[in-house]
Each structure stands twice: as C-alpha cells, then as structure tokens.
Amino acid sequence: MHHDTDLINIVAVGLGLAFILGALANKLRLSPLVGYLVAGICVGPFTPGFVADQALANQLAEIGVMLLMFGVGLHFSLKDLMAVKAIAIPGAIGQILVATLLGWGLAALMGWPVIHGVVFGFALATASTVVLLRAMEERRLLETQRGKIAVGWLIVEDLACVLALVMMPVLAGVFGPDSANETHTLGSVLASIGWTFVQLGLFVAVMLVVGRRVIPWILERIASTGS
Predict the structure, then answer these.
(1) Handedness of CA 198, 201, 207, 209 (dihedral sign)
(2) What burial class does residue 200 get, using C-beta atoms within 10 Å of its C-beta: 0-12 exposed, 13-18 middle, 19+ buried?
(3) Backbone angles phi, psi at 188, to 5 degrees
(4) Hey, is 38 helix, strand or coil?
(5) For the segment 62-96, what is each residue's pLDDT rounded down to a tens digit?
C-alpha cells in the first residue's frame, strides 16, 4: 500500500534542521530566527539535498504566520496603541512615507512603472512584526516603554499593510496594464475605492464584535465544562 509522506517529511526534516541550526545560532549569540531562516533555505529548491514540497511548504508557512500573528495579538491591544499614539502613529506613518518615496525613486531610476515603484517602496517601508517581537521578547523588552512604543509602531505598519493589500486589486484594476482598454471616470474610481472601504469597515466591525465578545464567551463556556 502506497503512503504519501510529503507532509511528514517536511515536518520531520524542517523541524529537525530548524532545531539544530537554531541551537547553533544561539551558540553564536544570534537570534534563533537566523537558524530557522537558514533551515528554510536548506530545504528549498535552490540548495542540494532534500527539497520540500513547494505547495505544502507554502501552506505550512501560511499556518505559521497565522499562529505567530495570533501571538502578536496576545501582546497588544488597542488600549496599548492609544497609550503610545503620540509617538507610534506619526512615527510609523512618517517612516512609511519616506521609505515608499525612496523606493519609488529607486524604481524610477531603474525604469519601472509608477505603480510598481510605489508597491516596491511600500514593501521596503514595513518591518516584520513577528521577527522584531521575537527579538524583543528574547531581550525582555516587550513590557518596557520602548518595547510598547515599538510594538505600537509595528501595529500601525501592519494596519497600513492590510489597507494596502485591500486597495491593491482596486488600484491595479484602474491603473494596471490590463486597464488600458477600459474607460475609468473619476466617479467610478471613487465608487470602487468607497465600496472597498465599506467592505473593510464591515469586516473590522464583525471581527471586533466576534473577537471581543463571542469568542471569549465561547471559551468561558468550554472552560466551565471542566473537560
């Protein structure tokens, strides 16, 4: 009987390499994340030896990001953001604007289209919340004032990323190469953008209600069963 073990192979080899290289990075006084990244390169298609199944690896990576972002949510709340808003919000917005403009300028020098340059610059403007949180957690900085400011700064960047990802399909449909044969009026563009913001607002409203009221209520009922 044939058994498909691609998932088991990825988990076994990937976690084994991550453990070994993470421990080695720690011995070299580096963050274990460096070892984890090297482990990912080792099981990738561009290095000799074991090559992980690309489709499964991508899905596992998405699950990993979801779990890590759940951890981010455990460390932060809207109240914490409001406590450091005077520094985190203008600082993050300023950083995003400057980095996006610099990336756009570099892309223009390379002859890239404007929309590509803006996306490239914005990608450079945002930091990895997960990586920085892990680094601050290892150094016990999360509960300090500097740590709270840094987390608030990162959350503002994440919110900007969410907004950018939501708006990208709309802007691509209006300004992308596939829109050359279509006629877009100012009203249609504003209507598309407005409808996108309405959908985003409804999603956020539902998540706030479900996340703050429904899920805690369900967890309390489960805990009360004692099972």
Answers:
(1) negative
(2) middle
(3) -70, -40
(4) helix
(5) 887 777 777 666 666 677 778 888 888 898 889 88
Best-predicted range by mean pLDDT among 3-7, 70-74, 144-148? Answer: 144-148
Residue with tokens 């997960």: 130
CA distance 163 to 157: 10
Evaluate whether 22 touches 14 at the Cβ level (below 8 Å): no
Tokens describing residue 119? 């996306």
- Which of 148, 147, 132 is CA-nearest to residue 33? 132
Beta-carbon contacts of 76 under 8 Å, excluding residues fewer than 6 positions away, are 151, 152, 155
Report the predicted TM-score, pTM, of the whole model to 2 decimal places.
Answer: 0.63
DSSP for 92-113, please give it.
HHHHHHHHHHHHHHHHHHTT--
Q: Who's near 218: CB < 8 A, 6+ residues apart?
A: none
The rounded radius of gyration (Å) of the Cα atoms in the chain is 22
* 48-56: long-range contacts, CB 8 A cutoff, minimum separation 24: 50/9, 50/13, 52/9, 52/10, 52/13, 52/14, 53/6, 53/7, 53/9, 53/10, 56/6, 56/7, 56/10
Q: What is the pLDDT of residues 43-70, one digit of tens each?
A: 888 888 888 888 888 888 888 777 777 7
Residue 32: HSE in the Cβ half-sphere, 13 Å Cα cutoff: 14
